[in-house]
């Protein structure tokens, strides 16, 4: 009885403290979805950058957030409908801006991973080789030039869709596709001899693309989204985001990814 009473008091104190501090409104539970993608999150190990980020977000906000695992395609649909409050490491485009807001916490470039035996040395080579098939993850968008390539090849029926990275790596090894788009979170797989021996990296030469906390406009009022954005900005400012990234990347690469100018 005493233990239950103390628990209730502590919960009330945390709730009141959070409200007076101007933090997010924790009067209801929230939902957040991760997706299985390289160093962002691995279902096999239950570890990753986004797992660490969500843990810290929960701790700082003091809110109850139920974390689940979904495909990226399902995440965007639920964010749009308002059935999901948050996801992580999302990038914006005109369509997504209609139903989602973002709180940026890192930025990175995209690259084209191609088979060495395809004779491809740049992006133009890939596009001009009419037998070259590109593999992409369903509902993923990338940097400007990468998106343009995907769209053009889609119109030529030269794009193969997959639910994640592993099927694309297998397709690349089996010559079912000749290239796929990657980012730094995918680097560990490149250390596998069977992939490293048959591939090379081609640059798009696009600027880094900001990634952030995805917030559903239908589920969260604008004022509350600003509070969550302030929480993410605080995590960047005090070095928390950098320390998370340094667990997974060399310090110089981690610094380049988290030290960027965030736009609203």
TrEMBL record:
<feature type="signal peptide">
    <location>
        <begin position="1"/>
        <end position="21"/>
    </location>
</feature>
<feature type="domain" description="Solute-binding protein family 3/N-terminal">
    <location>
        <begin position="47"/>
        <end position="250"/>
    </location>
</feature>
<keyword id="KW-0732">Signal</keyword>
<dbReference type="InterPro" id="IPR001638">
    <property type="entry name" value="Solute-binding_3/MltF_N"/>
</dbReference>
<protein>
    <submittedName>
        <fullName>Transporter substrate-binding domain-containing protein</fullName>
    </submittedName>
</protein>
<dbReference type="Pfam" id="PF00497">
    <property type="entry name" value="SBP_bac_3"/>
</dbReference>
